[in-house]
Amino acid sequence: MQLALDHVLLAVDDLAAAAVEVERRYGLASVEGGRHPAWGTANRIVPLGDTYVELVTVVDRVTAATSGFGRWIASGRPRRPLAWAVRTNSLEATARRLGLTVTPGFRAIADGEVISWRSAGIDEAAAEPSLPFFIEWADRAHFPGRSAVAHLGGATKLGQVNLTGDQPGWHRGSVVMICQSPSRRAHLGSSASCLSRAPVNWTSSSEGLTVD
């Protein structure tokens, strides 16, 4: 089973305004994503190669109110990281081991094609944002992180995700490798750790965009 950082979600009030701000502040361009019709949300993508940042907002409040994902996005603080997703090539096994429910997702992209995926652990991540949810793409050829884009500084990657949380949950064992530094920050690494909560902020450098 392979696990890797897939993307970070950033809840926003307005997709167009958020895209302008991210490009102005960080030199990161974005591309149109699409609508999630079952969730009442829509997104834009900041492609970063093997990962990406998802700018996501509620566009249909009635539908969003009936969807766990939609309610989660509606509750997010604008322009603050809301969640992170871990990519797996064995979602069923991961969900079975952790007692998570697998749900399908899809959206249409600009050329009319539909990209689809399955995810697990969204409700658990909404309750404890230090936990990731898991995602498996139906077709890696349409992976959002590889969308064509021209960032101001050229090719850019998501260098690191630092996160904090209240409880070990299923950080223990080898489900997701998270290690804690002496500064009490944590990052994907070789061992698990129980974390303590602290603020989350964006930083950037020549080596990539970091979520602290």
What features would you describe in this structure?
The two termini are 28 Å apart. The protein has an eight-stranded mixed sheet with strand order 2-3-4-1-5-8-7-6. The protein has a three-stranded mixed sheet with strand order 9-13-12, with no helix packed on it. The C terminus is likely disordered. 18% of the residues lie in helices and 36% in strands. The chain has a domain of 54 residues. The protein contains five helices and 13 strands. By secondary structure, the chain is of the alpha+beta class.
Neighbour order of strands in the largest sheet: 2-3-4-1-5-8-7-6
Secondary-structure element order, N to C: EHEEEHHEHEEHEEEEEE
Mean model confidence by pLDDT: 78
**In percent, how helical is the residue content?**
10-25%
Helix/strand class: alpha+beta
Rounded to the nearest angstrom, the radius of gyration is 16 Å
Helix count, DSSP H or I runs of 4 or more residues: 5
List the uncertain runs: 167-212
> What is the 3D shape?
globular
Could you tell me the strand content as a percent range? Answer: 35-45%
Task: Kindly report how far apart the N and C termini lie.
Answer: 28 Å
What is the fold's blueprint, element by element?
Layout: E1 3-11, H1 15-26, E2 31-36, E3 41-48, E4 51-58, H2 61-65, H3 68-75, E5 80-88, H4 91-98, E6 102-108, E7 114-120, H5 122-127, E8 133-137, E9 158-161, E10 178-180, E11 186-188, E12 202-205, E13 208-211
Parallel strand pairs: 1-4, 5-8, 9-13
Antiparallel strand pairs: 1-5, 2-3, 3-4, 6-7, 7-8, 10-11, 12-13
